[in-house]
Amino acid sequence: MASSSNTVKIQEVFLVTPSSDSTSEFSLPLTLYDTFWFNFPPVERLYFYQITDLTPHFFNSVIFPKLKHTLSLTLLHYLPLSGNLIWPPDAPKPYIYYSPNDGVAVTVAESTADFNSLSGNGVHEVVELHPLIPQLLTSDDKAAMIAIQITLFPSQGFSIGITTHHAIFDGKSSTTFIKSWAYLCKQGKDQEENPSLLPELIPSFDRTVIKDPTGIDMEYVNNWLAYINTRSLKVLPNIAPNTDWVRATFELTREDITKIRNQVLFILNKDNEKEEDKTPKQLHLSTFLLTLAYVFVCMVKSRRGEDNRSVIFAFTADYRTRLDPPVPLNYVGNCVMPLLCTATVRDLTEENGVAFVTEKLSHVVKALERGELEGRKDTLSRMLIALKSMSEGVQALSVAGSTHFDVYASDFGWGGPKKVEIVSIDRSGAIALAKSRDRSGGVEIGVALKKQEMEVFSALFVGGLKDNI
Q1: Number of C-beta neighbours around residue 377 at 10 A
Q2: Cα separation, 326 vs 330, whole angstroms
Q3: Is-catalytic flag, 404?
Q4: Given 34, 102, 166, 217, which residue is catalytic?
Q5: Do 416 and 409 form a contact (C-beta atoms < 8 A)?
Q6: What pLDDT does residue 468 have?
Q7: Which of 212, 271, 406, 411 is catalytic?
Q8: Residue 4's CB: how many other CB atoms inside 10 A?
Q9: For residue 192, what pLDDT band results from cuts at 50, 70 and 90?
Q10: Three-state DSSP class for residue 145
Q11: What is the spatial distance between Cα 116 and Cα 127, in angstroms, rounded to a whole number?
Q12: Rounded to whole angstroms, how far apart are CA atoms 71 and 148?
C-alpha cells in the first residue's frame, strides 16, 4: 500500500467576493429537493493538476492570481454561492441569503506529499487526502455554501479541493460550476469586467421551475427536526470520516462493460426460458447500472457476513428531464432523489448476483420512465430509517458522482486533471463514479473500505472480469 507523508502548511485564508459591488442583497428559497438534502454531509471533491517542475514563484505569480480572479468573475454568474444558508427564528424553513461583501472562503496551502502517490489509482490511506479539502463553516443557524482550497505541490503540480453544501448543490450543479470557472480561466477572460460563459454553462437559479403544490418541502423540514431533535443547519451528527480506511481507484473499460452486459443478458434470458411467460424482459442496461451492479456485488462479497444480513443499495436519479414541465439542464440546485432497493447478502453473493442486482436496479429505472417519481412525503422518512439501520448491521451501498459527469474536462489552462476524487465517500463507503479520463467509454470507480476488505474487493473486481461475471 502506497503511503505519502502529507504535511500541509496553510499559507493564507481569505474571502473571494464576486467581481462587482453593485448587487443588492437577495434571498433564494429552498425547494423540496433542497430541504431533502440540507442536513446531509457536504460533498468534497478534489482535482489534481500535474505540472512538472512547477515552482512556487510561477504558482504564486501566475497560477494562483489567475485562479483567484477568475473565481471572482465566476461568482458573478453564481452569486448565491457567495451567500449563506440561514434559518432565522421566524422562518419556517432555511433559505439562502446573499448580501454585498459576502464571498467564498479560499485557503491557499503547500504540501510536501508525493503528488503522484496521492493522484494515482493505487491503495492509500483515506486520511492522506483530508488536509487537501477545506472545511465548510457551519453553525446551528448559518452555513456557507461552498469552500475552496488550492494546494501547491512544488515541482509536481497543484490541487483544487472544493467542499459544497448539499442544500444548493447536486453533482451536476457542482460539476457545472467547476467547468464554468475553468472555462473563464482557460479562455483568458480574467481581463474582462463581466465575461460571458458558454450557453450550457450559464446557470439558472429559478426556483419556480420546481413545483410543490402539497408542501412536501415542509414535510422534509419536519422530518429533519424529528431526526436530529434540534433546529440546526449542522450536518448529520456522528457521520465522521472512517480514518482507518483505505481508498483506491478501479476502472472498467468499454470492453469490460460489454462483457458484463452480455453475461447479464445470458443469465436473465436463460432464467426467462424456464418461466411460462416467454416474453423477453425489457431491461435498462446502461453503463451506469451495470457498473453499480458489478461493484456492489464485489463490495458485499468483500465484507460477506451472514447470508440473511440485509443490504440496501441505492443511487440518485436526476429529475431535470423527468419532471413535467422539464427543469432546465443548467438549473443549479438539487434536482435529484435517492432510489433504494433491498436484498440480502445471499442474493448478491450467489452465482448470479450481478444479474440479480442489475434486474432490481433496472426495474427502478423503468418505474421512473413510467413517471413513478420519488419526492413523495414519506421519501425522506424512509431514507432516514435506512440510515438508522446502518448502525444495526445493515450494509448500505450508494453512489456519488456519475458516469455522465465529464469531470476531466475541467481544464483551467494548464491541462485537464490528472485525477479527480470524491473524498467524502470515506464517510459512508459509497462508491465514486466518473467518466474515464481518456473518454474511451470506460468508467472510473473510487472505493473506500477497510484495508482487509479492500484486498478482497480488489481480487474480486479483477478476478471477476477474467472469469465469468
Answers
A1: 15
A2: 11
A3: no
A4: 166
A5: yes
A6: 54
A7: 411
A8: 18
A9: low
A10: coil
A11: 16
A12: 10
